[in-house]
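Most newcomers find our protein records easier to grasp once they have seen one. To make this concrete, we reproduce a full record directly below:

…
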Amino acid sequence: MAKDLCSLKRNQSVHLIAFPSEASLERGAVLLAAEEACPFTHTRADARTLSSAKSRESLGEASISFLFASLCFLISLQRSPSSTSSVSVCEKESRPARSPRDTMEPEEYRQRGKEMVDYICQYLSTVRERRVTPDVRPGYLRAQLPDSAPEEPDSWDSIFGDIERIIMPGVVHWQSPHMHAYYPALTSWPSLLGDMLADAINCLGFTWASSPACTELEMNVMDWLAKMLGLPEHFLHHQPGSQGGGVLQSTVSESTLIALLAARKNKILEMKASEPGADESSLNARLIAYASDQAHSSVEKAGLISLVKMKFLPVDDNFSLRGEALQKAIKEDKERGLVPVFVCATLGTTGVCAFDCLSELGPICASEGLWLHIDAAYAGTAFLCPEFRGFLKGIEYADSFTFNPSKWMMVHFDCTGFWVKDKYKLQQTFSVNPIYLRHANSGMATDFMHWQIPLSRRFRSIKLWFVIRSFGVKNLQAHVRHGTEMAKYFESLVRNDPFFEIPAKRHLGLVVFRLKGPNCLTESVLKELARDGRLFLIPATIQDKLIIRFTVTSQFTTRDDILRDWNLIRDAATLIMSQHCTSQPSPQVGNLISQTMGPRALANGMSLQSVNGAGYDPAQARKIIKQPQHVEASPVRKEDSCHLETLLDPLDDDCFSEEAPDVTKHKLSSFLFNYLSVQNKKKAVRSFSCNSMPVSAQKSLPTDGSVKGSSRARIFSRFPEEMMMLKKSAFKKLIKFYSVPSFPECSSQCGLQLPCCPLQAMV
């Protein structure tokens, strides 16, 4: 019998606890004997067959007593849930190590969640210390991962450890204050908490019935946001007489496509009314849309998807699309038999943050029957501040408006606000209403599935609601103003450097600049900064000029961060210019050096011939190019310069060591005048009478840490050797009279008072 049992299928299972009748001793005896004879599992049908066969055999009283005791033990196991899994050794071995529902229980999730929150806090608090861009090559992750997914669960400790080991080495740290590429993609603690809750709820709010709170919170928050930005009332859900409203989309790219598709549908319906027999595809082929040549690439992509011709129009000197250019294009295209349908106006272009002229474009769109869509992806957040709403003049003509709270408003991706003037034009484009999506309130409630391309949608409004309530309008406004002030500070640094230029007006938090000279210099600077990895910048082109975009992205950016990054840029520029002049002497670059730095070059004893091609010395060029630069409250007036020259030429004799010859005194007087006047020092020079011991030119640099050797050596490289003829107290006097606040707007937010005299490292 035992031999027969062993022939049963090994992957079948029998649970003795499924036969709880204590009176069925003979059946229990058979099953127990089967378990002892062959430690494999069987089905209930097999067990019943064996029981019937065995019932015809006689059992001794001793066997019955033993079986009764064993069966009672097994019944007790059934009554103890914690012991059930130990009934069968074979059954235990056949189960996986952990079932999916056992991988993480609520208590462990609570523990692991706290660990993850701690990690996130540590990461975001110290992100400025990380290299911004990763030092990896495409495919770096392939060698660190197995070929196939694990068959058994990995431990959470192993998974958590791989974050720093595998993921972080390949991350671009978008939250770093030294991340200046693209536009911001900010987050905040309330936003993180909001998405944590939304992901836990994980509802799909495609209709009101699928999650009423998801739909209604979004409608109310979108009305809040429209009022915060100063948008027209026809964009509100809860406004008498309004047919419009707002909805959260995933991206501005998707919003632009939705607007174009809605405009196309509406125009085709108008055309069919006058041409009832026309085919929709032939009507669509006649449509044409417009945008400026500075518009985002997603506008072009929307045209490709919708099969609508897209014409990009020229801009004015401020990179703004004007009404005259639009009117001319409409006239030309109508003469060609085309039907204008759509205009995408940009507020805050990607390249230079330029603004199209809505006050001119709007009336033209209204008179010509064109859908006016406004893309304010980045700049939209700035309209929280009333002082920036001048760019919205003409917004009343807009049929749709979109911007990204996920850029500058500290609501992390994805979160895009999209408003329409007439929701029915939107719904007629995207309404597909199968019976399984209908509900009792269909038609009375808002179903956002008719406002978008996908069906399902996330509960995005929670994080936006959390952010608005946690910060309040005033703090959100202060955040925008802080970013703008940081950009102004960077702009002032660039404008005060003669080797750089700003080819487009600064707007909001974006500054565009370039190294004067051929595009190859600017390109090389970008490559050098990318190789270094301590900050991240990207290029753009305007009027055939290669430019560098510098965006203030982080809410935690300080003036120290800006100054540190500017110094990195200048160091890279110094390196590139010295290499360029050495490898391929350029009259253009040489003339630039001689024109902008000639006085400094002469003050350092360098001839203009040496910086203008022949006899070029890159070491000397570095001394000229890397002169210390600081931004002052205002430039020195001409009369102040003359007064300064009189006082400094010559210095008092007792400011020099006894061995200093007259020619040296005169040279230093001239040098200090040229050098300090370049720095735009405003304070008047008083007395330089000094009686302390001279600083020996042969004295070695201190090594006790009292003076940073590298800083002092860097200063030495900029000055003539005769500088050491000055007494130490003379340096102190110079520092005292020439240390002024290094920032032009001392009252602005986050302004710091720092001494900027370049002689500081000499004492």
